[in-house]
Amino acid sequence: MKRFLRVARWLLIALGLGVVGLFGTHLAFRPDPKLAASEEYRVLSAYIETNLTGESHDLGSRNGLVVIDGRTTFSGQSVNSNKFRQYLSLLGRAGQARATIRQLRRSLVFEFWAANVCDATLERRFQLPARYEVATEQEMKLYPSEAFFARFPSSYGALTFSRVAFNRDLTEAFFYTEHLCGLCGEGKFVYMRKTGGNWAVADTASTWIS
């Protein structure tokens, strides 16, 4: 029994040191929060703009209306409404995304986990070549009813985004997004890089598609 308690104690100590080490890594590689909050809208705007082609499975048309969920989220399609379980699922799927996105560093995945512990409210700070609206929680609850499309005519459904994680110098970004468009849609992780002052998608990892 004493031996078991000693082993358990050392395991707890090792776990505690591991948590402290991860937290220290997070602080060491974390970007400036104020700069990251501003850059977040540039990243998401660049992602949306590139996909406004009007083609099937893209995010809409420049002649239509872009609808963005006003709260960051990471499981719009999840049947399980328990936030804690959804977050645990996100942790696992983000780790698996590294198998597809080879350029994705562990430090950026860890920053993504930390950034998405809490939801955030998105503001009208997107820069898009199309009309857009930031939907309220009540409006998002209407999806996918006729009332939703009556409220947002000429839209291709709605877009949801997680918080965006950045590397320390704000040249790499990683986030999760879902495009909800009735009978079609997709959920995926997106890895973007900033080159010459412009953000562009470097790679993605799909989690579901219909």
Structure notes:
The protein has 210 residues and is α+β, with helices and mostly antiparallel strands. The protein folds into two domains: 1-30; 32-209, no CATH class. 40% of the residues lie in helices and 24% in strands. Strands 3, 4, 5, 6 and 7 form a five-stranded antiparallel sheet that branches. Strand 6 (184-195) and strand 7 (198-209) form a beta hairpin. Helix 1 packs across helix 4 (106-115) and helix 3 packs antiparallel against helix 4. The longest helix has 28 residues, at 2-29.
Any idea what the radius of gyration is?
19 Å
Oligomeric nature of the chains: single chain
**Helical fraction:** 40-55%
Name the overall outline.
Answer: globular
What number of domains?
Answer: 2
- The assigned structural class equals alpha+beta
Mean pLDDT: 86
Instruction: Detail the poorly predicted runs.
Output: none
Number of strands: 7
Biggest sheet layout: 5 strands, antiparallel
Share in β-strands: 15-25%
Q: Count every helix, treating DSSP H or I runs of 4 or more residues as helices.
A: 6
Listing every helix as H and every strand as E from the N terminus to the C terminus, the arrangement reads HHEHHEHHEEEEE
Q: End-to-end span in angstroms?
A: 54 Å
In short:
Helices cover 40% and strands 24% of the residues. It contains six helices and seven strands.
List keywords for this structure.
210 residues, alpha+beta, 2 domains, five-stranded antiparallel β-sheet, globular
Secondary-structure map:
Blueprint: H1 2-29, H2 33-50, E1 65-69, H3 83-100, H4 106-115, E2 131-135, H5 137-141, H6 146-151, E3 158-161, E4 165-166, E5 172-181, E6 184-195, E7 198-209
Parallel strand pairs: 1-2
Antiparallel strand pairs: 3-5, 4-5, 5-6, 6-7
Helix pairs in contact: 1-4, 3-4
